[in-house]
Design a protein that fits this description.
The structure is a homodimer of 233-residue chains.
Chain A: H1 2-23, H2 35-42, H3 46-58, E1 62-65, E2 69-72, H4 91-116, H5 119-137, H6 143-156, H7 160-172, H8 182-200, H9 204-227
Antiparallel strand pairs in A: 1-2
Helix pairs in contact in A: 1-3, 2-3, 4-6, 4-7, 4-8, 4-9, 5-6, 5-8, 6-7, 8-9
Chain lengths: 233, 233
């Protein structure tokens, strides 16, 4: 079975390239050797290198920019749609499931962030907080910046898996509310500030509670709109 | 840029195949139309279908068995190594980070399982429990069955994201102990039984507590072996 064989060669070369990236301590964004150089380094054909790189691109381990070369991906090997959200038909159920998971994880993430954040982490968190506030002040869509705020809290934990997981779970949450009221803009600002201040001052218990309130407030909006209205007493 | 163009066609066809799978309600393991049929169905070339299928294979949405055809993947679109564990150099830190996340998530998962499990879910959970016990009784490696036990608890929650997430986090935890003592075999059996019984009897609070004890017991073994021994008072 030559097909199988070729597959294995490419996979093996992919593994060797991963080892090479780690041993040479390449960082996200760094430029890697070209096809020819990899072929020399690994002692395999350029065809095999090409196949290996295709595998690594699909796993978001490297990225190829036409004309510029091959780079270590900024996505750090986290796949697109890693948990298969695309394959879930019922989007309301998916959103409900994700809100449930966020409520389980993120309060503890906030507590760990309060415990472990460095001054640099906090500086970045404050920057993002102010950007969210600027957007809400102008009544602009703050979804993306909001996700960044939660992702930076995950980074503050210094738990690598948390840093990779939180953006996946947050990006899966679909915007559910057709209209965001004045009240919700204000609530977002107040909640984010409480969370930020508690993390900054290393008040882990308060950070956890502030995150609980923030998530419950938002879940509640969703449940009222999409779920409770269909329940009978 | 013909390359870009072709990429987009394949990606578009991949999206259409996903929609087709969902609309026709295909389940994991079901056989899909062949290349020729998809080409007719989607109104694209067989080359484009082939490219689309390659994308879907790499995302674990479909699987191709040589000579047998194309099937909906049992992996339900969850990528291999979805959170990029391969790219983390420090394996001890990775294990520590994963144990931390398990401790945050799994007790709540056990509580939800106690609340939501159906009789069929419980039957399957019991079956796996007995298999783990049989393996520990023979002093055989029970790692895989143990992971299955935890995955089935996640299934009992009926939260789709949980079902997809728990196996990812558990598979990432590397076996850390070179020797498993008699004591640990007994502890595994006792902990699993407590968790199972609490879930079966819908005692959510007890299920949560039993899972907390189980995870802390195991983390503790790891911390004593790998982390605490290097800390100074």
């Amino acid at each position: 079975m030559p097909r199988k064989e070729r597959h294995t060669l490419g996979e093996q070369a992919a593994k060797n390239i991963i080892t090479y990236i780690q041993e040479e301590n390449y960082q996200p964004g760094d430029k890697l050797p070209n096809e020819y150089e990899f072929s020399e380094l690994l002692g395999v054909s350029r065809n095999t290198v090409r196949e290996a790189l295709r595998v690594l691109v699909s796993r978001n381990i490297v990225t190829i920019r036409q004309g510029a070369g091959t780079f270590v991906s900024e996505k750090k090997g986290v796949s697109d749609d890693p948990l298969g959200f695309t394959m879930v038909d019922d989007r309301v159920k998916l959103t409900k499931d994700l809100l449930q998971i966020r409520y389980i994880i993120e309060p503890s993430v906030a507590a760990l962030a309060a415990q472990n954040a460095t001054p640099e982490d906090l500086e970045k968190l404050k920057e993002i907080l102010l950007e969210v506030e600027a957007l809400t002040g102008q009544r602009m869509d703050f979804t993306e910046k909001d996700a960044e705020f939660h992702a930076q809290i995950a980074n503050c934990t210094h738990n690598t898996v948390m840093s990779n997981l939180i953006p996946v779970i947050n990006m899966g949450v679909e915007i559910f509310s057709s209209e965001i009221s004045q009240r919700e803009y204000e609530q977002t600002i107040r909640s984010h500030r409480s969370i930020y201040l508690a993390i900054r001052d290393k008040r882990a218990a308060d950070a956890k509670e502030a995150m609980q309130f923030h998530l419950l407030y938002n879940s509640n909006r969703f449940m009222e709109e999409k779920v409770l209205s269909e329940e009978q007493l």
